[in-house]
UniProtKB/TrEMBL annotation:
This is Homing endonuclease LAGLIDADG domain-containing protein. It comes from Candidatus Yanofskybacteria bacterium RIFCSPHIGHO2_02_FULL_43_15c. GO terms for molecular function: endonuclease activity. It holds the Pfam family LAGLIDADG_2. InterPro entries: Chloro/Mito_RNA_Process, Homing_endonucl, LAGLIDADG_dom. SUPFAM superfamilies: Homing endonucleases. Signal peptide: none annotated. GO terms for biological process: Group II intron splicing; mRNA cis splicing, via spliceosome; photosystem I assembly.
Length: 210
């Protein structure tokens, strides 16, 4: 059987099963997936997980970029959700995504994997920041950068802070924010941080680092 390039042409369960057998995560897909899971992305499903990407309609270009990365894993193009003014798509469910889900979820709650140090690289960090980061700027002066990691516990944030220091030489602070904690790269790292991720930041999201 020849698997169609456009997955949405698949029309029955046998074709879908055969289609799944052809799938493998490329290195770029793995990196974008890991960065997405550290950020706003979710894995859901029952027997096997699927990746769900959803961002504000203002970040439509970003969703389209992720779609191009995972296009061969999808059944349909991104679509608009008027309920929350978002743009989204999802992949097919697959055992390979379930394996990653076992690293990033415990009892359906997102966690930081024990192996996080081995999973991080500049592309992963860039996707994570594009998902969940923002710049601290006042009067056109940049003071630092935030990674909004409030969904993780304080102890997990402390682990992330140490790993980022060991891996990239980034000094960060774990700061209380509302009902959680987030990472802040201040004066000690505000020059280094954007240099690590700059080449991976999309044109439409350059405002996050400049």
């Amino acid at each position: 059987m020849v698997i169609p390039r456009e997955a949405q042409k698949i029309t029955n369960s046998n074709e879908l099963r055969n289609f799944r057998k052809t799938l493998a995560l490329s290195e770029i897909q793995k990196d974008v997936l890991i960065g997405t899971l550290l950020g706003d992305g979710t894995l859901d499903g029952n027997r096997n997980y699927r990746l769900v990407i959803s961002h504000s309609i203002k970040q439509r270009d970003y969703v389209n970029w992720k779609y191009e990365v995972f296009k061969n894993w999808t059944l349909s193009k991104p679509n608009y959700n008027p309920v929350n003014n978002s743009f989204r798509f999802r992949t097919v469910s697959h055992p390979k995504l379930t394996l990653l889900g076992e690293l990033f979820y415990k009892d359906r709650i997102k966690i930081i994997p024990v192996s996080i140090s081995k999973l991080l690289n500049p592309l992963v960090l860039a996707v994570w920041y594009m998902d969940d980061g923002n710049i601290r700027r006042q009067n056109n002066k940049i003071y630092g950068y935030y990674l909004n990691t409030q969904s993780f516990t304080k102890s997990e944030n402390l682990i992330l802070s140490q790993v980022l220091k060991d891996k990239f030489g980034l000094e960060s602070y774990v700061l209380k924010n509302k009902n959680g904690y987030r990472l802040y790269f201040g004066s000690k790292s505000k020059e280094i941080f954007p240099k690590i991720i700059a080449k991976h930041i999309l044109p439409s999201l350059q405002y996050k680092i400049r």
